[in-house]
Amino acid sequence: MSQYSSKWIKVSEPAPHVLLVELARAPVNAFNVEFWVAYGKLFDSLVEDGYDVRAVVLTSAFPKFFTAGLDLNDASSLGSSGSDTSVDTARASLATRKLLLAFQQAIGAPERCPFPVIAALHGHVIGLGLDMIGICDIRYAASDAAFAIKEVDIGLAPDIGSLAYLPKITGNQSLMRELTYTARTFSAAEAEKLGLLSKVVPGGREEVVKEALALAKFIASKSPIAVSGSKHLITHARDHSVPENLAYTGAWNAAALMTNDIRDLLTARAQKKQPVFPPLAIQTKLPTHSKL
């Protein structure tokens, strides 16, 4: 997996079709521009290359920190052109907006993947960390995890994903607003109460990564057509009405039901074997055109 690892991101394949992605920018995984660009590129490259991955576990290499959030020493990540008096305010704002949209696009890359991304959280999960995990499909946390939607404490509203995702994926609007407005630290138990987590694992990094990998391996054993389709349709349902989603699902499954995965699954079950499914992506080459 060396082709997908980069300076601050380690990628390994601990089980067939399961990738472990470890954030590794010492000492606390603070994100500068280079880091978040590499993060987005990783997920987009896996999709573009058609790599046969069926589940990803996202975690940190450092036991005490998942991420400390944005690297405040990286001035360009905050749109420093606003302090340049030679650039008028409108143009500086456009430049900042362009940067923020690129930032959102990079951090949002896991949602564009046809495979589930499972966040295995531990230690401190601060600021940008909440933006990142809200985009993931499933969130497990170690009991030692501590969370903070920290942006208010540096004078801005969260702008990379927290306010877009958390109100839709959590079940307690009052608590979510309280945590955002106060920027106070909250525990894994409170995050579970909020509806942010599906499981709290006793212990720390080692324990939660083990649990997340076990889940990833189980998901990877399922039909990739079924799993990827389910992810796509759940995301569609989040952003559309029930009638719209039902109509869209009808159109989607009219094609998806043609898969051989159903036949292979039923055959394997009858033979009391584990089904083996082909990769989701088909490797193709762009057609070449002869000269006229």
UniProtKB/TrEMBL annotation:
Keywords: Fatty acid metabolism, Isomerase, Lipid metabolism. One of its GO terms (cellular component) is mitochondrion. Gene3D superfamilies: 2-enoyl-CoA Hydratase, Chain A, domain 1, Lyase 2-enoyl-coa Hydratase, Chain A, domain 2. GO terms for biological process: fatty acid beta-oxidation. InterPro entries: ClpP/crotonase-like_dom_sf, Ech1-like, Enoyl-CoA_hydra/iso, Enoyl-CoA_hydra_C. Pfam families: ECH_1. One of its GO terms (molecular function) is delta(3,5)-delta(2,4)-dienoyl-CoA isomerase activity. It comes from the Eukaryota. Pathway: Lipid metabolism; fatty acid beta-oxidation. CDD domains: crotonase-like. Belongs to the enoyl-CoA hydratase/isomerase family. This is ClpP/crotonase. It comes from Agrocybe pediades. The lineage of its organism: Eukaryota, Fungi, Dikarya, Basidiomycota, Agaricomycotina.
